[in-house]
Structures are given as C-alpha cells and as structure tokens.
# Entry
Amino acid sequence: MRSNPTPSAAIAPPSGPPSPPAPVRRYVLPLAGEDWQGLLARLAAAGEAELALDALLAWNPHLAYRPPSNPLTPLDIVFLEGPRTGPR
Amino acid sequence: MFDLVVRNGLVCDGTGQPARLGSVAISGSRIAAIGPEVGVDVGAARRVIDAAGLVIAPGFIDPHTHFDAQLSWDGLATPSLEHGVTTVIPGNCSLSLAPLRAEHREFLGAAFRQIEELPKSAFDAGLRFTWQTFGEYREAIAPKLGLNNAPLVGHSLLRLYVLGLASRDRASTPEELRALADCLRQCLDEGALGLSTSFVDVDHEFRPVPCRLGTLGELDALCAVLGERGRPLQLVPEFWDADLLATRIDQLAELSLRHQIPITFSPLFESRAMPGLVARTLERLELQAARGARIQAQMQTRPVDMTFDLRGLNAVFSSMPTWMGILLSGQDATRRAFADPATRKKLAAETDTAPMPLALSFSLAETRLTGAKGADAADLGRTLGELARERGRHPAEVLMDVSLAEDLDARFTATDLAQADEPAIGPALRHPQVQIGAGDGGAHVARFATCGDTGHLFARYVRARRAMTLEEACKRVSADVADFWGIPDRGQLAKGQVADLVVFDAATIDRGPEELAFDLPDGGTSFRFVRRSIGIREVVVGGESVYRDGEGYTDVRRGEWIAGRGR
# Structure
C-alpha cells in the first residue's frame, strides 16, 4: 500500500541552507578600549538599563576573574543573561 | 629502476578502504607504483624494505604544533618524527616566529616562551633570529628540515609587524587594517599555509596577546584574504565553557560561510570538570555544518597530564587567585608565603573551594610527588593525599612543605586532568567535525611529553578499545588532515603522491613511557619530557628513510616547506 505524503512534507519549503541557530545566550562584544562602566552605559543607552555590573560579572566569570592587566578586549564575549537551564 | 620498494606489507592507503597486502615502489621523491606484491618487481630496486607482517601507511600529519623554535635547532622535530609524523603545522594560537621586526624580537621571545612554556636558556641558545619577513624565515629554516613544515602565520605577529608595540594596546585604524591584509597576503605568498589567532592567550606580562586587541571586523578582513586563496584559520577559543564555545562556533560559522574557508579550533577536551561540553559542542558544530560552515574541533588522543613545580605560575592554579598572586610575585615571595601560617591556611582553603581550572579535573590529593632530591625523595610516586594523611596535614600543606624543603625545585604530577574517559572519547575521535590534533608538539616541554599521540591512538582506540579500525585511524591522521588543511600531494598512498610513509607493527605500536631528556640546545641546563616510539619500524620522508627502528635517525634531510594549495 502506498502512503500519502505527510502534511509537513506536502508544505515543505524549497530546500536551502538552514537558518542560523538561535544564540545560546544573548551577548555583546565590547568596543575597542571600552571598560565595564563604558559597556554598561552603552547597554543602558540601548535600552538595557536594568543590567547591573554585579549581574554581568556573575554571568561572565571568564572576564570577572581576570587581573587588571587583562582588561576587556573587543573580541570578548559578554553574556547579557545567565546560563539557561533545560534542553537546548 | 625504483629507488625504494617497501614490499609485502599491509597497505593502509589513507582512504579508509580495507587494507590490502601489497608493496609501494618509489622513484625519487614520489610513489611510482602501488599494488599487490606481484605487481612490483622488487629486483629492480636500489633498496628494499621488507614490511612482512607490518603496516604501510601514509606519514602522519600533526596539525597543531609549536615546533617553530625547535625546528631552528632540530629539523627532525624529535621525537615526533620517530612516531611516524612526517608533516607538522606550527605557528598555531596567533604565534609564529615571522614576520618579525628586529626591534620586536625580545618581546616576541618573552611572550612565546611564556605561552608555549619553553625554557629561556634553550630558546636563547638554539634560536638565532636572522629574518624579518616570512620569506626570510623560510629561507633560514627550510634547508634544515628532515620532515615537512607547513607553518601558519600568527595574527599577533601580523599586528606586531604593522602596528608595532601599539598592537598590545589598541585596535587597528582603517589604514593599518589594509596594511594587515597586505601583510597577510605577502606571508601567504612567501610560504604561510594559513592564519592563526587566539581569543584567550596572555603574554609574559599577563596582558592580552596582540591579536586580542583586534576587532571582529579586523578578523573578518583577514579571513577575506584567506578566502581569496581558500586558506585555513586556526584559533584558540574559550574551550572550557560550553556556552562560550557554542557562541564562538556561531561566530566562526559566519566567517567560514562568508569567506568559504575551513576553520579549526583547539583544544576540545572531554573532562569530568565539564560534563556534557563535548556533546553540546559537537551538536553545535553539526548545526553549523548543516548550513555549510566548515569548522572542525581538534581533539588530542592522549590524556592530559601535567607536571609542575612552584617556581612560577602553572595552569592547575589558574582558578585560584591567591595562589596565582603568590606564584606571580616571585620565588622569594613564594617562599615567604609558604612559611607564613595565616597565608598557608588561606592557600589550603582555596584548594578546597576553587572551581576546576580550564576544564581540567584537578585534584591536589591525587597529585603525585615526582621530583625531589632531599628527604622527601623517599616518597616519590606517592600522592599528596597519602602523604597528607600520614603527616596529619592538608594536601596543600604537604605541597608547600615539600616545595620549601626542595627550595621550590620539587616536581608534582597530576594525571588524567582531561581526555581520560576512553569510552566517551572514542566516538568523538571519529566525529566528522573533529580533527585528531591539538597535541601542542614542541611546547610545554617541562610539563608533559607532546609526542606519541598517534601511537596512543593505535594502542588505545584501535587495538584496546576497537573504537575505530586500523584503516580509519590511518585516514584520520593523514588524508583527513591533509584534506582539511589543503596540503597537496600528501596524506594518501597513491601513484604520483609524495612518498611520505610510515611502516609499523599494528600489534605493538604505542608511545613509550614519559622520560626526562636533557637534549635541549642549552647543554643540559633545562630538560624536556619525551616519549620514544614503540612499534615504528621505518619512517620515509620524500622517498628517503629518515628513521629506522634500532638505528635511529639517518642523515637525510628531505623535508619540504608546504605552502598549501588554494584558489
């Protein structure tokens, strides 16, 4: 017996490269020469006024525990939220 | 007449196809014929290697090394070559030795020695900077090569060359960015295989390496140059955190797709300290591969072991700020701190509460005393946990006591810090988005032996675990690496290919035990850890034997400089 196409197959879009996956966590990259205060000010101006330095440091231990000689750099990933739980 | 015939062996040709009994005939530096024994007239050969009972495979390619300095005094990259490695890729992690202006040699040397953990005495005694451009560097190194060299140019070196020491402090201007792109083009023209960068490394002053002061736009512009020639990018990401790694993979995927370049990062560690990290990373790589991005994670085959002393900072204390501060403050300050009761108490407490460093599963109690000359020498080989129980002290106190008694020269070894869970690692080593590499050959010489990873692969994952076949293992460390990096005419045994091959006993191939060697060019002032090969019978580079079991290295130097193919 021949089965009918499934509804999803019948309406499948033309094949093409899949879309980029959603980011695992929201993040920004610092601007050249930007420190934490400058980053916070920029985020506030962009509508992220509720973000506090303590929260950013807690979500970014890879940056928080650096010595002063190793400041924020333009390629650093700064997460704007904590780790998500559950399956991804 | 053939120059060399390797006859009657089990030919694993690097394609992964079932091995067949046969012979390989070589004329000059190329394979002239390959096939069943009957197809080769061994009587018409200047030399014959009898490979009966042995495997004939393509020479292994090590894609992540820091042999840059060593190759200037040891063109064989010993002892990697005797493990069957016939091609190395140095210049990883943003650090090469060219292009380099004379006024920056001191800075680059200090940074290179700190990051790759090379003794200053050996570096100074063995390395003579006689070049500034990449082409001059090639001219200086190429004549000494006993194995093939396919070096990357480091992003930090490019920035240092164009921006000077300001590269440590700031991003590039538009004009400088054009100069960086031109400099990269020139390096590729003069013999660089590709580019390397880093998102994490710090120099000898614990400042970001110059490449980290670049922007994503700068990296994108340099990847555009790589894209003009189809050349690869290598980098070091935040390998210890699954979210950071997934985010980096997303960024890299955009670069790979936009410029149609292969990108590889290293290392990817399986570790008890970061459960689930490998699975999540592979899942992300698969998602991006489905979009067409060409990204591979490099995974080493050997477990991560580390020997350390307390004369300076080392990775196992990287998540312990009090320890880091003391170890960075000099040996006199370290001695004073270890003798101060209040500081000792604080240091001991920190070892109990600190998070695992860099995805390494580190336990002070399981760390062994492996180097002492005084009274504690009687306890060599025992764990700090055992000694702590016996002496009624905290393991950290034993560490400090023994170090003080030995004037900080005591050595300790932590084993299985990562890459120790073989049932989990076996499938990962076969994954299409994983490349076998990340071995760091030529670096960290007093911490662990970086050679013999291929022997370990065959011994543990082919022979003991049966996680992959002999044929697949050969392909993974030859043709797969050559294909990813665009290394022409190597990686397979086929007519017309360059005759780089290794003859080994599949029943015994392995890496030997870790040994101390005092063979660095400083006359024995410093040491390095090495592992000798087991089961390797002969290594051929460019059609000539360079290593023979029982005889050692020959005088032949047929290694080539490999600049890669491209568009």
About this structure: The first strand of chain A starts at residue 27 and ends at 28. The first helix of chain A runs from residue 7 to 10. The two ends of chain A are 39 Å apart (CA to CA). Chain A has a mean pLDDT of 83.
